[in-house]
Amino acid sequence: MREVGLRRRRNVDCTMTSSLPEPAVRTRASTREIFGWAMFDFANSSYTTVIITVVFSVIFPKIIVGDAPTYRQGNLFWSVALSVSYGLVVLTAPWLGALMDFRAAKKRFLLASCLVTVAATAALYWATPGRVGLAMILLIVSNYGFAVGESFAAAFLPDLGPKEALGRISGYAWGLGYLGGLVSTALVVFTVGPQEPDNLAQLRWVGPMTAVFFLLAALPTFAFLKERGTPQALPAGESLARLGFARLRTTIRELHAFEDLVWFFGGLFFATAGLSIVISFAFIYGDQVVRWQPRSQLLMFVLTNLSAAGGAVLFGALQDRWGNLKTYRLTLLIWGLAVVGIHQTKTLAAIIGKAVGGAWAAEDVYLLVGTLAGLCLGATQSAGRTVVAVFAPASRSGELFGLWGVCGKLASIVGLLSLGLLQSALGLERAILVCGGFFFAAWLLSLKVDERRGMATARRHEGA
């Protein structure tokens, strides 16, 4: 990666130093390049929305595993498959990020992750009832490709503009991503029909349709996004694998110099644990606990995606005016209220019905709470990504965003397994409260972070 102005080449051992002069201010990338970068959010949202959240997440326990009426085994298998994929990300993402920085190969790594996701998602066509092992393997591989791709794409963010503009850029991309999720899921849902066993012939096309959408929508990314930086020569007798691990050890050993980033990673761990549950179980909760009708499921999908897109853009603008960290904290507080609303959906329906003198269905309240949560769904993730971008020296964005990916995926493992085990023992309705604890812990740890101090630390280590 490079910045506007001159940058000293990093030594091979990449030892961080605080004696470097403050770097020149970055100029904003071209509109076309920012659009190309944002289109990857548009493209990969098809995977996380169709496969992880709305459609395949219901097909897996209901049809492939088929352990009605509780679906507890199917829900547990779903949690385990996602957790294994995130475990693989934890083991590989920082090392891949170190190699990516050394070889100046972010774009190639991003393309590889995209192709892995597309191929494994298309292969879900063969995941039919009873073929639980195959479905889990394909889910693990496809979600791994998606998850490392998130880290690879995020590593481009520091190069797209000055730090004070990154909140708006990130929010724009995240908002576009939710529109991508809306468009892709609408295409799939209206094409394949209801998620019922007697519609299996149509439902088998969910994976291939999502894969084609992802691939085509990502084409502008690889056409317009620029690869910055100069590949470094491999020292004599050194291998890329050994060098990648050496760089990773150096980064981890010197993380103490980035105090605010470390505290933020700690809080982000708990926030992501909560988000992973919401993303993976929101529609399962609606199906199994709220017992909603197909109309409400469709409305929830539309409302949450529209509110998430609008929230990401609006909160992105707020980040640049009010500060990334303050915005992030606000979204966590709103999440806490939303979790209480989700758990108390039936009670709230009775209270509202009594107050207005009419009947209110639990699914109607769930729609309202989902819309509120949707406002923060993209905003929390976008703000978190931006905080890491402004705390990370551009010369180490691949490595530090690799650690960002590790933090997020470890959190997803903890969140999904926590909910999976709790719902096996207590039922999904009570187990969902663990989300509230995660968001509260994230808010508490965020109070230890000083945004100005974190940005100053990044400037001191720029180019190291």
Low-confidence stretches: 1-23
Provide the CATH top-level class.
Answer: Mainly Alpha
Q: How many domain modules?
A: 1
Largest sheet: none
CATH superfamily: MFS general substrate transporter like domains
Helix fraction bin: over 70%
Domain Major facilitator superfamily (MFS) profile: 260-464
Subcellular location: Endomembrane system
Main location: membrane
InterPro entries: Atg22-like, ATG22/LtaA_families, MFS_dom, MFS_trans_sf
What are the key terms here?
ATG22/LtaA_families; MFS transporter; 464 residues; mainly alpha; transmembrane transporter activity; Growth Hormone, Chain: A; 19 helices
Model description:
The protein is mainly α and 464 residues long. The chain has a single domain (31-226, 241-460), classed as Growth Hormone, Chain: A. The chain is 75% helix and 0% strand. It has 19 helices and no strands. It has helices spanning 31-54, 56-65, 72-103, 106-122, 132-154, 166-192, 200-203, 206-217, 219-224, 240-253, 259-290, 294-322, 324-343, 345-356, 362-391, 397-426, 428-431, 434-446, 451-460. The longest helix has 32 residues, at 72-103. It is globular. 55% of the residues are buried. Mean pLDDT is 84; it is low at 1-23.
Task: Write a concise synopsis of the structure shown.
The protein has 464 residues and is mainly alpha-helical. The chain has helices spanning 31-54, 56-65, 72-103, 106-122, 132-154, 166-192, 200-203, 206-217, 219-224, 240-253, 259-290, 294-322, 324-343, 345-356, 362-391, 397-426, 428-431, 434-446, 451-460.
